[in-house]
Amino acid sequence: MHRKLAAGLLAALIAAAPAAAQRLLTIGAQTPPSALDPHYHNTQNNNQIARMVFEPLIELDTRAEFQPRLARSLRMLDDLTWEVKLNTDARFHDGTPFAAEDIAFTFARVPTVPNSPALFTPAVRSIAAVEVVDRETVLLRTREPNPLMRFDMAGPVILSQRIHGPNPQTAEFNSGKLMVGTGPYRFVDWRMGERLELARNEAWYGPAEPWDRVVYRFIPQPGARTAALLAGEVDLIDYVPIQDIPRLEQDRRFALFRIDSITFVYLAPDAMRETSPFVTDRQGRPLPANPLADRRVREAISLAIPRQQIAERLYSGMASPADQFAAPAAEHRLEGLGPLPFDPARARALLAEAGYPQGFRLTIHGPNGFFPSDDNLLQALAQALARVGIETQVQALPPANLFTRATNRDFSIFMTYFSSYLTLNPLRQVAMTRNPELGHGPFNRQRYSNPAVDGPLAQALTSMDEARRRALTQEAARALLDDKGLIPVINLKNAWAGRRDRVVYEPSPPNLTEPRLARPAPGG
Asked: Other CB atoms closer than 10 Å to residue 60's CB: what's the count?
């Protein structure tokens, strides 16, 4: 009897050995993707998932350096021609070779994805033709010079014409049918809003990833995310709740991984319409004109915001006051600026000057579970505006709902963020007059339009002379700042927390939570 029992136990141990040897990384992530279609929504939480399964031509690493992926190299032959040398070792997960024709197929699809809250169109806006020279070489012909070509090519991931053609639908990615890429991980399973599972791609051309399986658990509630880490249910969490940082710092079981980000939070006021849906007088009656269309009112809103107090008290130093519509590390930002001024008295005077001595009522919309303390920040902004006479209500929405409604112009003013290593990129994406054909303003959900911004931006986007491009970018940035067409609030810092015995994480300035940036802890 004992021999049979011992033999049974030995057999069970042998059978379990391969599974036990597998390395599983479980991530408690704040924000789920709105879709698995890699071209549906150009946002950080979608992109970090897409790039595990699919790959762009090149990518930016955590040091803002370009690294080859499906392109071994990208070089400019002249102002209108770029040569791409392809990675011929790359294969899609079903064994289909990556082909030169896949680039043209992908770039043609990018501007056409239906119902997208924000397309990747700016990344392919300048490309007039994709010419296949041979199996290893493609020429990108542009309509005009494009100084941002390398940044653009780090954007949309590449699909296969053979696998995904001729007309891939977002629903086919969401079902898993078309989740076939060239990336380091294969798709296994997705439960929308709850869980995503990936498995290591053993045939990937790059260095082997250390994780056999990766599970994302989407936990929007900050406290629940920390609780899952404390209970050992997850190995790593992102968007560490501000209030939990001291506790985790003092607990030797956990490690914090922090970095200054390239993310800044801003308000987008409805500055262009004659009337606006969530603005009334103090009695709740419609106003004859939209106060947000008056620059003085927008400036009053900016002056009412105590950015330094918000950064210190609400964010405990995990944020800094914004000074402009660009991250602190962004290339070609305006120089020598201090934080935007906080002057409630001047704000009240401007409201009176604009014809609103008693203020008005306003609803501010924003996300709940998109970045740390976003719902608390909304409340802080509402309180600040109330102190200068703008009676403000708050509506915090799930991110997917927020951006769908913002794209439909449902709001009078809403809060969100942008991440970029450049100053020019958020200007063209958010502030430039919306033009789908040219790829300008895909995130310009309030349809802001200012010739003083558009003029220099149009020139900067085609200038290969860096000094001139810097001057033009700064001219546009100054015009936007003066007009308060978009109102910067704070710059965020990023933090992850992990089990010290399980994982070491390389923090990412764009706030990407990816298994490629995680390594097993020594001895783990």
From this structure: 18
Type of residue found at 510: P
- pLDDT tens digits for range 211-236: 999 999 999 999 999 999 999 999 99
pLDDT (mean) for 8-16: 41
Q: How far apart, in whole angstroms, are the C-alpha atoms of residue 185 and residue 202? A: 8
Coil/strand/helix, residue 274: coil
Q: What is the pLDDT of residue 3?
A: 38
Pairing of strands 66-68, 279-280: unpaired
What tokens appear for 156 in the block? 């949309």
Confirm if 259 and 505 have CB atoms less than 8 A apart: no
Q: 265, 381 in Cβ contact below 8 A?
A: no
Determine which helix (DSSP H) or strand (DSSP E) holds 349, and give its type and residue range: helix 344-353
CB-based contact 158:130 (threshold 8 Å): no
Per-residue pLDDT reduced to its tens digit, 30-87: 999 999 999 999 999 999 999 999 999 999 999 999 999 999 999 999 999 999 999 9
Cis before 166? omega within 30: yes
Beta strands (DSSP E) in 95-177 are 127-134, 137-142
Beta carbons within 10 angstroms of residue 169's beta carbon? 14
